[in-house]
Amino acid sequence: MTPRRILRRLSVAGVALVLLTPMTSAVAQARTDVPKIAWGSCGTDPKLKPFQCASVEVPADYDRPHDPTTTIALTRLPASDPAHKVGTLFTNPGGPGGSGVDFVQAAAQAIYTPELRARFDILGFDPRGVGGSDPTTCYPTAADESKSLANVPPFPVTAKENRQFVIDAAKVAVSCQTTSPDRLAHYSTANVARDMDLLRQAVGDDKLTYVGYSYGTYLGATYAKLFPDKVRALVLDGTLSPEAYSGSNGDKDPLGVRLKQGEGASDTYEQFLAECKKAGADCVLNKLGDPKTVVENTLARLKTQPVDVPLPDGSTVKVTYAVAVAITFQSLYDPHGYPALADMWAQLAGTNKAKAAARAPKTVIEWNNRKEDYTTSIGSALQPCVEAKQSGRPLAYPAYAAAADKRAPHFGAYRTWVGIQCEFLGIRDTDAFRGPWKNDVQQPVLVFGTRHDPATPYEFTRPYANLYPDARMVTVEGWGHTTIGQSACADRMTTDYLTELKAPADGATCTQDRKPFDPLPTGKKALNLLPQ
Question: pTM for the whole thing?
Answer without folding.
Answer: 0.90
